Amino acid sequence: MILRVANPIYDSVFKYLVEDLRIAKILISALLKKEVLEVEVRKHEYTNGTRDNISMFRIDFGAKVRESDGSQHLVLIELQKTWLETETLRFRQYLGAQYANPDNIGKEESHEFGIPMVTVYLLGHKVGDIKEPIIYAVHKAYDYYGNEVTEGIPDPFVESLVHDSIIVQIPRLHGRVNNRLEKVLSVFDQTHKDKGNRQMLNIDEDNYEDDTDMMYILRRLLAAASDAKLRQDMNVEDEYFTAIENRDTAIMNRDKKIAEQDQYIAEQSNQIAEKDNQLAEKNNLLAEQMKTLKATIQGLASRGMSLGDIAVVMGKSEEDIKSIIG
After folding, report:
1. 310: part of which helix (H) or strand (E)?
2. Distance CA 217, CA 22 (A)
3. What is the pLDDT of residues 129-139, one digit of tens each?
């Protein structure tokens, strides 16, 4: 059965989706590939309020995870989602703010340390030529000789200074479901977008009927599709992005026109330069011809011929002969 659900690429729908802590737990567990015991939304949620250049939705989670050895610890999840190609500096600025946030400092007996952090980027655009839809940028520690250091790692001091990142290229998903995370992220796959309304996705629930977590996510997105306020919020986002697209189209057309004008000017300059070269070559040729004529006249004159005789021999007037010899 095909379900017509709200498209979570929209900030408003995504916010509605992950505000459900069960869904946040499902998503974070799939991203981290670890058992997540508890999830809480951090007390500050950050969104792009001005929306002047880009759309970047930001939300912070605290996740209590259990490692394979049974140990448990808290991890900060800094999740950022954007539709448009984004300057990395904006991500770095936000990340820097989180490092400086005193709420992200943990305490252990007599000293403080930064709570381990994982940054997650859900991108509505492709990153260069990277074909993989999901990328894990994981830090490791090495000694001077390039050997990995494992003894004593992880260490609170080291974990306070570095972080891992997970980058998801939503356009690279296109029907690919090879693991748990890709299955969870499949509800973002824009190949399911309704042809008549990009605010909606057409999802085949039969693909998830044996997965209670995924069915729960679909039901949440189904509820979002019937929520009047969310539909209005999506309309606002569409209006915003239409304005952005129109602006970008105008800029592209302007740049194209400028490029065409620059190319025309360059072609004209090349043609002028070519004509100048041709004229210079003609001048050089005339100079050589004049030099040859002058040498011929001087040779005839040295044999005792008069200017009149030379003019007759060369088929020119005496005035021409005089102008040649200067």
Report:
1. helix 307-314
2. 9
3. 889 999 999 88
CA dist., res. 225 & res. 234, Å (int)? 10
What does the pLDDT average to over 8-34?
93
Chain position carrying tokens 């448009």: 84
What does DSSP say about strands 117-123 and 72-82: parallel, antiparallel, or unpaired? parallel
Q: Cβ distance 104 to 147 under 8 Å?
A: no
How would DSSP label each residue in 272-287?
HHHHHHHHHHHHHHHH
Query: How many angstroms separate the CA atoms of 150 and 141, rounded?
Result: 8
Yes or no: say if 253 and 53 are a contact pair by the CB < 8 Å rule: no
User: Count of CB atoms within 10 A of residue 74's CB?
Assistant: 13
What are the pLDDT digits (tens) for 153-210? 777 777 767 778 999 999 998 887 889 999 999 999 999 999 999 999 999 999 998 9
**CA-wise closest residue to 4 among 193, 268, 255, 152:** 193
Residues 6+ positions from 165 with CB-CB distance below 8 Å = 118, 119, 120, 121, 136, 137
Total-model pTM? 0.64
Is 239 buried (19+), middle (13-18) or exposed (0-12) by CB count in 10 A?
Answer: exposed
